[in-house]
Hints:
Strand content: 15-25%
Low-confidence stretches: 1-39, 420-426
Distance between the termini: 40 Å
CATH superfamily of the largest domain: L,D-transpeptidase catalytic domain-like
CATH architecture of the largest domain: Beta Barrel
Shape: elongated
Number of strands: 18
CATH topology of the largest domain: L,D-transpeptidase catalytic domain-like
CATH class of the largest domain: Mainly Beta
Number of helices: 11
Amino acid sequence: MTLSRRDMLGLIAVGLAAGALPAVPAQARKISNFNRRMLAPPTKTEVFGDASTVSPMLGEATPQLMEEAIAHYDMIARAGGWPQLPHLRRTLVAGSRGRLVRALRERLIREGYLPPQARGSKRFDKQVVQAVMRFQRNHGLRVMGHVDNATIDALNVPAETRLETLLANQPRVEWAVRGIAPRYILVNIPAIQIDAVQNGVVYSRHNCIVGMPDRPSPALISKVSELNFNPYWTAPRSIVRRDIIPQAMKSGNPKRFLQQQRIRIHDGFNGPEVDPDTLPWPDIDIRRYVFRQDPGDGNAMATVKINFPNRYAVYMHDTPTKQLFTSSQRYFSSGCVRVEQVHVLTEWILRGTPGWDRRRIEQVVRSKERIDVHVDNKPAVIWAYLTAWPMADGFVRFREDIYRLDGTGFVFGQPQPVGRLAGQPG
C-alpha cells in the first residue's frame, strides 16, 4: 500500500489516539510473517440486523464450550496429534491428486474438519475444498479453498500447542463473560473485530484497528457513557512525546506542522492557547502543555468518540485513515480502538436515547458541530484478549498471539509492550 503525502500527514496526525504513523506499512510487515501471503483481509464488516441468528465471539455458553474444546484437543494430543505437512512448491487446488493430498485429508480428519470416511483418497475434491475453507476462516487466513504455504504453516501448528493456547484463554473467557449484559460490545483484540450483541445474537460485526505490539490495547470491562460527535482530540502525553514533537521537529517548522494538523497548544487543560514559536522545542514540558486537535477533517477521531469509564484512558472512535481497514494485520493504534462503519455502531448504541436515530446522526456529522450525547440505554463494553475461542458449530477460532501473552498468565489489564515481561495488572 502506497500512501500519499496527505495520507501520511493524516496518519501522523494523529490517528494517534490512533497511533497511526507514516511507517504503518513497514510496521505491519514487522508485526508478523504468519499471514505474509494474504492478499486480502480475511474478515469484513457486516450488519446482520435485528433478525440475526449469528452467534457472538463471546457469549454465556462460551465457558462450557471452552471446556469441551480443551477436552477435545487434549484427546487429539494424547492420540499423537496430527501429521506435519511439507512446504509446497506449488499451491494445492481443487482437482490436485497425490500423496500430499492424502496427507492433507488425514490432517483435516484428525482435527475434525473431515469425517473419518474421507481417509485414504488422493483427490482434492469439493469436500476437501469446503474443509480447507472452513479451516482458513477459523484461523483468520484468506479464505480461498486451496492450500498455500500460509495455510500449511497454520496446519502444522502442533495439537499440543493448540491445547496450550486454549488453556491460556480459558481464564480470559471466564473473566470476560462477567461483562455480558443484554446489550454489549465485544472487542476481540487478536481477532481485530468487534461484535455488537443484543439478546445473545450479533447485530453487527466490525473490522477494527487496535494497539500496536509496542503500544498494546488493554483488556477491560466497562459501559458506554457518552458519545462525542465531531470531537476535539487531546493528545496523550506519550503520543506528544513519542510522535508529535519528533514529527514537528523533523518537519523543520513545528508551528507550520501543527497548523497543518490543526493542533493547538494550551497552557494547561482548557488553558490559554500558546504560540508554538515561544516554546523550547524539543524540550517542551508535556506535563504542563496540552496538545489539542480541532474537530473536522483530518481529526484523529474523525466524526465520533465513544467513551466509557476506564483506568487506561482508552476509547473507541472513528478515523480519517479508513484505508487501513483493508489491511489483514490491523495493529496500528496507540491503544485505542478505531471502528469501521462506526455509525452503524453509534446508531445501535443510541437506541433508547430520545431524539437520536440514523437521520439525526447523519445531520450532526454533516454539520461538523461539536455535540456530546449522554447514552441512556448503556451497552456494556468488553475488550478481551482471545487468541482462541470456541463456537457453537464445534470448531475453535484461533488467532495469532500478537502481544505474546499466551503462557504469561495474562487475563486482563494493561499488557506490557512486546519485549517486556507481560503480566496481569490489577
